[in-house]
Amino acid sequence: MKKYGSLAKQLFLSLWVSGAVLLYVLFAAISWMNYTGRLASNPSRIWDQHHLLPEAFFAMFWFSGNAALHHAAAALGIAGPPSPWLTHTLHMPISSQTPFFHLTWLYPPTMGLLALSYAALPLPISFWVWRALYFAISATLLRRAGLAWPAIILGLAGPAAMIDLVEGENGTLTGGLIASALLLADKAPKAAGLVTAMLSIKPQIGISMIFALVQPRARVMLITAAAGFGALALATLPLFGLHGWIWFLSHSPQNSSSLVASPFGRIFPEAGSTTFYMARSFGAGVRMASALQAISSLCASLALWQLWRVPGRPEIPRMAVTLALTVLLVPYGYLYDLVGFSVGMAALCLTASPSRQPLYAMLWLFAGHSATVAGLTQHIFMPVAAVLGAIIGWQELTAPHTPPHAHNPA
Q: How far apart are CA 329 and CA 293, in angstroms?
């Protein structure tokens, strides 16, 4: 009987691993077709009113960095006209007096510092250089936080990261930052605080860190995060001044509200990941979707408070549950923001009991395949997956054993 039981377990393992690999390869193929299809449609224009290449959103930040440099140089009297290639490729008035922040309307001035780094290289080169840097920075921080390489690679090269690549976004970087900060919170609070400060480039990704920072035992992390953010904010002033922060604080909420209130289907509908977008996909109006999101955010907040209130919880499950609850917490989010969630599910898949590993693998895959399901059904189900991840991940908090191959602090 033991022999047959062992064979059944091996067969079960082979079946679900094969299925997961097949679905991963399928999503990679879809992503590649999406990428090459966009590239073939009009390779000479990266971004205009009707055409987007994968570099498009990266190009927005790259262009913003160039605009900031152009205006700074103009203030010093050394600015030259933009190159013909730049204006033709982007089809944007780089020489206009439109403020830099109107292009990065949802982001604080600290994102402008990263945009300046993008602008140091020509756009086609900068895109791929920074894709590699995103992976390298996140992998280094996650390894420093104690995560083993298999979990790191699966998380940073999962389906959510593929969406991030095709959309030209920065989820691979911000996902690595938030997962690292959560893992470092107890054992390296100063490092966690500095990483948290870096998340000021995209505050909605790091919002769940608040529940870790406000705990009495997190005083060092809180002070370090505040100091790091203060240093970054000061660094923005020579280029963007106080008006940059005033503009962000006064206009960003309005622009975010206008964006999510757009008719469903107009802006990235299949890539939505929040309770708000799920409700909209089922026909709810803006008010009803907002009310459901408020309930979701309240429940997620209460769970996060309870999660971080108790000291000494296992790092990997706590990180994974936090990132699952973050999906339910924020009203504005997309699948390319779920790289951190993917890291958490991949890590749990490698640490959990064999009976639960297929569930975590499914959630890791669904962080990308949510778009596949949405494309077929016109409905978003990612919040449902996040609830499942939070529930079963919470049970890992009391698990008696963590296999050494998945969490290696060496």
A: 8
